[in-house]
Structure formats: C-alpha cells, structure tokens
Amino acid sequence: MVQEIKTVSRATELCCPSCGRIYNIYLLQTYATCCNQPLVTNYYLGNLSKNIIDKSVASMWRYAALLPLFDKKNLVSLEEGSTPNILLNKTAAKLNQNKIILKDEGANPTGSFKARGISVAVSKAKELGITHIVMPTAGNAGGALSAYAAKADIKATVIMPRHTSETLKEECRLYGAELILLDGLIDACGKKAGQLKQEKGYFDMSTLKEPYRLEGKKTLGYEIAEQLNWQLPDVIIYPTGGGTGLIGMWKAFNEMIEMGWISGKLPRMVVVQTENCNPMIQALATGIIPETYVATPSSALGLAVPRPFAKDLIIEAVKASNGTAISVSEEEMERGIRDIASSEGILLSPEGSATYVGLKKLIEKDWIKEDETVLLFNTGSWYKYR
Ligand SMILES: *Cc1c(COP(=O)(O)O)cnc(C)c1O
Question: Is 239 in the pocket of ligand 1 (CB under 6 A)?
Fold first, then answer.
C-alpha cells in the first residue's frame, strides 16, 4: 500500500557535470546545454543519517529525502523498487564463485526497472506542469511512461522500433498512449521525438535529456546498499544501453560516502553490451564513438543504443571504479536464459542473461576472483519479449 511520504526533499540545484554551471531546479530544465551533457541533481547532504530513510514506505520512495520531488501531492507511484535479491547458489557452485546475487528488477511495475526512472520523471513533470510527454524507446521505457502518464493524467506519445515485441507495443496502447512505430533503432526514434518536441511543444523525456530519470535509477544504489546491510558487492555487472542505472548507482554510492553511510572500496562497475551494439567498448578504449559506427538490432532491446547521450558519464564511472566493458553474442544470451531457467528457476530477459554471460567471461579472464561477491541485474521480465 502507498504510505504517505513524510520526509522533505534535500535537492538544492541542478548542475552541469562538465563545467559545474548551476541550473535552477525550480524551473523546467532539459540537459546542460552549456556542454551538451546530462544535468545532475545536487542535494544538501550535510550530516544526513540513515534515519532519513522512511522505513514506513516499502517502495523506492523511502529515499524521498534524496529524490527531487518537492510536493508529495505530485507523487506518481505504482510501488516501484524494493525488488528481491536472489542468491544464485547453484550457479555460484558451478562457476566456483563465492557469491552471486541477482537483483530481479523484472518484479517492478510494468515489468522492468524503467519504472524507477519514470516514476520520478513523471512526478516531476506533473510538479512542473507538463501536459504532454514524448519519448523514444527500445520498448520497456515506453511501457513505463505510458502507465505512469495514465496515472498522472498526462498525455504520452511513444516512438518505438517496429521490430519490437507485440507485448511491448500493446501495453502502450492499453495504457492509452499514442504509439508511433518506425524502422530502425532508438536513435531514429529519438530524431522523430525531437521533431515532435519542435513542432508540437511536447516535453522530451529521452534518456538523460531531462534530469530526473537518473534520480529514479539512483535508488538502485541506495536499495542495494540497504538490502545488503551497507556492504556493497565487489563487482556489479550492468547491462548498458543509455547507462542511466550505472551512472545513477555511481552517483548514489558517492552520495552515501559523502553522508558517511558507507566506506571502503566501491564496486567495480562492468558495462555489458551485445556484439550487435557495443559502442561503449570503443568509447571506453578511445573516448569516442566513431561517426561511422553502425549497430544492428539485438534481442536485448534495451542494449541497442548506438549513441548513448551520457557516454562521458558512463566512461567516468567505469574508470573511477576500475571497471571494464565486455560484449556478448545473441547465441550466448539465448543459452544463458536456458541455463538460468533450468537450474535456478528464474526467467531472465536477454539483458539479464547478458550480465550472466558477462560474469562467466570475466571469471574465465580471471578479472573476477573466486572470493569476490558479484551482483547481476535482471533488468526486465522475460515475458515482455514475446
Ligand atoms: C533500458 C534497459 C536496459 C538499459 O538500461 P540503461 O539504463 O538505459 O543503460 C537494460 N535492460 C532492460 C530490460 C532495459 O529495458
């Protein structure tokens, strides 16, 4: 049941992560136009204790003090977050690995972790008087936006690649959104979204082109820390598309260090992508994604992002954490789904399977040691891909 939020947001300002320019948090903002970067939210964190966590709230809004919503009457929640951590004991024994934890984000409303970011972004859109949102999506973000916009009485236009599954399309229609299908990947959909923003004045909620989906995804970091009794894993393997969750967790970890909630070494952050679309592998090696880079579709829909807007922030988090990046093939993901389903009784999305395959590869390379604790993500529900 939705409990009333009692804590007050400590958010103070928005900031360009590149030059530090401050943007007014009480006005509608998009991204840091000064440096063409996402905007990040700053908080007054001085001497905040863990008591600020509102334990009467089961959802991720228990961290409302560290989220940017100022007036709780604007809250749009379907009880997202508080997802289970499942120990993959049989897999750990087979791979001779100390501990493998699977955070199952498929348990979220609308069946993916996109619910976290969209709950905060739609709540803020309501707070700032937005009436029509447009969003390009590989699939799951569109479903989440459609559901939360319905709840908020905000109109939604979702633009999706035509090759996406029927389930992902039909849920948008059922939630009452306008659905536009295009040939190509999410970057083509993003161009169309930009055009509708220009022509019709819709608010563009593309990944990291507005500040607050990042804050919602940040709750992954707080939740992992709280659920694991403030002992973070050694390695986190994240299936990376736009990178919101990876950047968000890294932000959460650093906020928690600043507040003194955690100490010691932070997890090494691993980017997993597919062989069909792995721009971050090149970007991590060279700092750029070549103009000529071409991606092809993948069964891991959420990872098919050829040009992540937040590339620089992804690189920063991976490097600062001593992390790495790895690619997996379509066949490996397919086999991974079968492995985990038949041994652990859990159906992974292709993206979730990518983290398991990435783990196996990094153990083989001896990049992950056997005494380390590893956290994998199942970012979405298998059922949405039919
Ligand atoms: C969107 C999505 C991802 C990628 O998340 P980013 O934060 O954009 O990197 C991974 N898995 C699933 C199931 C997704 O829907």
Answer: yes
Ligand 1 mean position to 66 CA, how many Å? Answer: 22
Token couple for 304? 């098919």
DSSP track, 371-384: T-EEEEEE-BBGGG
State in Å: Cα 51 to ligand 1 middle: 31
Cβ of 114 below 6 Å from ligand 1:
yes
CATH number of 85-112+213-385: 3.40.50.2300, 3.40.50.1100, 3.40.630.30, 3.40.50.300? 3.40.50.1100
Question: For 252-310, what is each residue's pLDDT tens digit?
Answer: 999 999 999 999 999 999 999 999 999 999 999 999 999 999 999 999 999 999 999 99
Please tell me the pTM assigned to this model: 0.97
Bridge partners of residue 181, in order along the sequence: 160
- pLDDT bracket for residue 7 (50, 70, 90): confident
Q: CA-CA distance, 279 to 217, in Å (whole number)?
A: 22
Amino acid at 194: G
- Nearest in space to 107 (alpha carbons), one of 80, 86, 146: 80
- Which candidate, 76, 79, 75, places its Cα nearest to that of 107? 79
Cα(217) to centroid of ligand 1, in Å?
A: 10
Closest ligand 1 atom to the C-alpha of 351?
Answer: 11
Atom of ligand 1 nearest to the CA of 349: 13
Is the predicted pLDDT of residue 2 greater than 60, yes or no? no
The alpha carbon of 47 and the centre of ligand 1 are apart by a number of angstroms equal to 33
Interatomic CA distance for residues 384 and 83, integer angstroms: 18
> Which two structure tokens, joined as six digits, stand for 172?
């948008």
- Please work out whether the CB of residue 351 comes within 6 Å of at least one atom of ligand 1: yes
Domain boundaries along the sequence of the chain:
85-112+213-385
Q: What is the largest CA-CA distance in the chain?
A: 57
Element (H, E) at 361: helix 350-364
Helices (H) and strands (E) in the chain, counts: 11, 13
Backbone angles phi, psi at 82, to 5 degrees: 50, 45
Which residue stretches of 107-177 are H helix? 114-127, 140-152, 166-174
248 Cα: distance to centroid of ligand 1 (angstroms): 12
What pLDDT was estimated at residue 5?
A: 78
pLDDT at 174: 98
